[in-house]
């Protein structure tokens, strides 16, 4: 990349992270005459975060929700660097990467978040998290290996432990994961593992809030509770997982469960980087930005998506939700502001348009609260809405076709043929 330095007079923009925010920023600047854009990401592919749980539970193949950056950027005038950011030198406008240095005129952070274990190292070591493709493959492998162990053990207590799973966190990821696990237990386990027919075991979900899917409407709270209960899920509200030692999961209410699997979906925290002082960070280590997504204390450093926090929007005094839509909208808005700056025109402040929240439980129980909860959809309409939004949001037609086919198979057969164990030593965090 550095051999391009000085090859033209365009301003150099470096974007850290190629998720929803970073990719939508970059897409607005394809083949741009004013800016030379370089995207830096530790992976060589973009992936669709909301469907990671379907990879982790063997309902989608990893290639259905991911696509290589270099193919996306063919003939688009965008440079790509697969590397990790180590530190930033804001005085000299340079960044140090795991494979060298780059200079910039404008630096855009879109690096997203990582799993928050709230300082509990034992849970971090033992639990399964779900923040990337590596995590999803790891989850799939571990779930399948656990089922294989349960199938051959002759000890009823050991089998019960192996077939008992706890999901910590009642947000969209936790609810969707537990729904898929319940579907697998109800419709698939006896087919693949006839040895386990009638075996004991349970699926639990725990959350510190009084409801699941807390940001959504009361109707969604009630339907979620009803659907999961019908699927046989034990729901623990106002309850947090506090420890996980020797296959014993302890809860904040004093109860404990013996379980071989703990899936952690209880929170996230933003990535932090050397060179960005703590005074620039707000709640959840998110970079504090102004209405234009410029980071506090800097003139040429910006943050978009989950890694940023604005307290300037009266409707969201604690910052915008860390969801796909705010990230997409911030990425597009910031890129348009860069185009305006290049033409000497004023920037426009970011204004979030809330299109609503969606969740799906199992293979076909979807709910949507649209336009600030003014419209609630469930049943078949909710399912169609969820399917449509997620399909159109996938980055490439190849992904759309693969995912639609997999969903059709799963819907019509209550089954899928993706439960293979592919081992890898590389596990994301």
Short summary:
Residues 1-6 have low confidence and may be disordered.
CATH-scheme architecture of the largest domain: 3-Layer(bba) Sandwich
Q: How many strand units? A: 24
Helix content: 25-40%
Strand order of the largest sheet: 5-2-1-9-20
What does this structure look like?
By secondary structure, the chain is of the alpha/beta class. It folds into two domains: 2-42 and 83-115 and 269-342, FAD/NAD(P)-binding domain; 121-266 and 364-413, 3-Layer(bba) Sandwich (FAD/NAD(P)-binding domain). It has helices at residues 20-27, 52-56, 69-72, 121-126, 133-152, 156-162, 172-192, 218-230, 324-342, 379-393, 397-413, and strands spanning 11-16, 35-41, 45-47, 66-68, 78-82, 85-89, 94-97, 100-103, 106-109, 113-115, 165-168, 203-206, 233-236, 241-245, 248-251, 256-258, 261-264, 268-270, 287-288, 301-303, 308-309, 356-361, 365-370, 375-377. The strands form eight sheets. The protein has a five-stranded parallel beta sheet, with no helix packed on it. It has a four-stranded parallel beta sheet with strand order 13-12-11-17. Helix 8 links the parallel strand 12 (203-206) and strand 13 (233-236). Helix 1 packs parallel to helix 9 and helix 5 packs antiparallel against helix 6. The protein is globular and about 70 Å long.
Features:
24 strands; four-stranded parallel β-sheet; FAD/NAD(P)-binding domain; disordered N terminus; alpha/beta; five-stranded parallel β-sheet; 2 domains
């Amino acid at each position: 990349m550095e051999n391009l330095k000085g090859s033209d007079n365009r301003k150099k923009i470096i974007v850290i992270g190629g998720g929803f925010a970073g990719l939508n920023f970059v897409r607005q600047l394809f083949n741009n005459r004013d800016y030379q854009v370089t995207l830096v990401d530790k992976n060589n592919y973009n992936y669709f975060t909301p469907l990671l749980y379907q990879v982790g539970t063997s309902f989608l193949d990893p290639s259905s929700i991911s696509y290589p950056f270099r193919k996306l950027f063919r003939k688009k005038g965008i440079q790509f660097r697969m590397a990790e950011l180590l530190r930033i030198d804001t005085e000299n406008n340079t960044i140090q990467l795991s494979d060298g240095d780059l200079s910039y005129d404008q630096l855009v952070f879109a690096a997203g978040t990582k799993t928050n274990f709230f300082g509990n190292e034992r849970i971090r070591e033992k639990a399964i998290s779900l923040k990337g493709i590596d995590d999803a493959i790891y989850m799939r492998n571990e779930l399948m290996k656990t089922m294989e162990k349960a199938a051959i053990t002759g000890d009823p207590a050991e089998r019960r432990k192996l077939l008992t799973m706890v999901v910590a966190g009642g947000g969209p990821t936790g609810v969707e994961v537990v729904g898929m696990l319940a579907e697998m237990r109800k419709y698939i386990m006896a087919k693949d593992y006839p040895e386990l027919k009638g075996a004991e075991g349970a699926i639990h979900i725990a959350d510190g809030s009084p409801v699941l899917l807390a940001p959504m409407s009361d109707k969604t709270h009630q339907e979620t509770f009803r659907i999961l209960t019908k699927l046989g899920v034990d729901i623990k509200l106002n309850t947090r997982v506090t420890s996980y030692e020797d296959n014993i999961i302890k809860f904040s209410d004093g109860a404990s469960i013996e379980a071989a699997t703990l899936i952690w979906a209880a929170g996230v925290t933003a990535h932090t980087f050397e060179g960005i002082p703590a005074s620039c960070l707000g709640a959840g280590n998110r970079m504090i930005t102004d209405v234009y997504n410029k980071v506090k204390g800097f003139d040429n450093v910006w943050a978009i998506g989950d890694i940023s926090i604005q307290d300037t929007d009266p409707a969201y005094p604690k910052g915008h939700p860390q969801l796909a839509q705010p990230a997409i909208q911030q990425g597009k808005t910031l890129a348009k502001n860069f185009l305006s700056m290049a033409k000497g025109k004023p920037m426009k402040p970011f204004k979030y348009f809330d299109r609503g929240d969606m969740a799906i439980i199992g293979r076909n129980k979807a709910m949507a609260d649209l336009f600030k909860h003014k419209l609630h959809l469930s049943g078949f309409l909710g399912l169609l809405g969820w399917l449509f939004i997620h399909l159109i949001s996938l980055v490439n037609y190849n992904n759309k076709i693969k995912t639609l086919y997999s969903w059709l198979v799963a819907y019509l057969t209550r089954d899928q043929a993706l439960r293979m164990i592919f081992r890898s030593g590389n596990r994301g965090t």
